[in-house]
Amino acid sequence: METRWSGVRNFKSGLCLWLILWLVVVKPGGVSACPKLCVCYPTPMTVSCQSQNLTIVPAGVPYNSQRVFLQNNRITELRTDSFGFETQVLWLYGNNITWIEGGAFSNLRVLEELDLGDNPLQRLEGGAFRGLEKLQSLHMHRCKLAVLPHDLFHKLYSLQFLYLQENQLHFLQDDLFSDLVNLTHLFLHGNRIRALSENVFRGLVNLDRLLIHDNRVRQVHRKAFRDLGRLTILYLFNNSLSELPGQAMKDTHGIQFLRLNGNPWSCGCEARALWEWFREARISSSELMCTSPSQRRGQDLRFLRELDFAFCPLPDPGSLAGSTTTTLSTKTRWWFSKNKPASSSKSSYQKSAEMGKPFPFPAIKPQFLPKIPSETFSKYELSEHEAALPKVDQEEYWANYGNEDSSIRCIELECPLGYDNPAFSSISPLPRMPSLLHLLLLLSILTFSFHFLFG
């Protein structure tokens, strides 16, 4: 009996020995099938091939890899057959990738993080990220990108972090991010973006941080932020903004941190809507130093007094912008003028001239007529003809965008002498004077004219 139990013990001992040998020798055999010049680790399955002067994605990467590191090599292109494995994390930054074929990552169905930063992506095809429906983080910083294909981010429903900073982007197409419903962080700083259109951020209903500083932004559409109700951080500093529509900021209900410094703010009547928004908002904000008009230069827009806007016209109740004027950049006004129907230009001018006459009697000499803001005329012309204008051709509009001068503002008495507006060709500019003296002069003129006409 003792001999029998001894045999059983020997058998168990031998079995345990074989199990140990299998774990030590056989199991690491899977790890030993590591690509040449790479190092592999079993838990989690990691393949590290960084800084090995590789020119293509190496063959032999284990199919069940979870992390693949290929950064700082010399890989030049990514094609549909480049990846014969699956992984959750793929680092390709610091290579020489110039071309990514459409569907290049379609085999990486479980990919969650993709880093393509610091690559000269000259040719980025539409659909390059097709199939990456589980992707959560995408890095494309410093890739010399000048334009993004309109369908580049289609169906990336899981994406939460998108890094596009320090590229050469001049503009962003409408609905470029419309499928990114779960995006929380969007980094666009350090580009050359000039305008934010009405639908540029449409669909970003969960966006928490938007960084657009260090660009060339001059215009923000009043509805540009309408889907950004959950935004808490907005950086627009170091741009070329002279005004920001009050309605745009009203749409950012959850904003907590706002940086708008480093912009040439105009603090005339066009700033009233933004000033009123700051009075109601309870946020952490940077300073907003005025550069015009001259008497407010160096003041902080946020701390202006209500008296500073006392002589501004009342806001238009029908305007979503909550602004008193409609102003267009010279580039936009050039386009409208170029495409305006010729048959209606004369009637438009006559109507504008009639709307601009504050005195219906001829007894007063023209040089004493007050100067009327050009936006008054622009407003009537635009509302009269905008429906009849042809659709803007995007290529034509953007061809020379950036060569135009800054948007011309003519508020109250701030119009420069010889202001270039055809509506004023027969009116001599009124010399600049304090507003109180101006009112007294007008009152005297009215009194004199009343006695002259009615004895």
From TrEMBL:
It comes from the Eukaryota. The chain crosses the membrane at residues 436-454. Its main location: membrane. One of its GO terms (cellular component) is membrane raft. Residues 1-33 form the signal peptide. Keywords: Cell membrane, Cell projection, Glycoprotein, Leucine-rich repeat, Lipoprotein, Membrane, Receptor, Repeat, Signal, Transmembrane, Transmembrane helix. Pfam families: LRR_8 (PF13855). The keyword Zinc does not apply. InterPro entries: Cys-rich_flank_reg_C (IPR000483), Leu-rich_rpt (IPR001611), Leu-rich_rpt_typical-subtyp (IPR003591), LRR_dom_sf (IPR032675), LRR_TM_domain-containing (IPR050541). Residues 263-313 form the LRRCT domain. It is found in: Cell membrane; Cell projection; Membrane raft; Membrane. It is a lipid-anchor. PANTHER family: ANTIGEN BSP, PUTATIVE-RELATED, RETICULON 4 RECEPTOR LIKE 1. Belongs to the Nogo receptor family. This is Reticulon 4 receptor-like 2b. It comes from Takifugu rubripes (Japanese pufferfish).
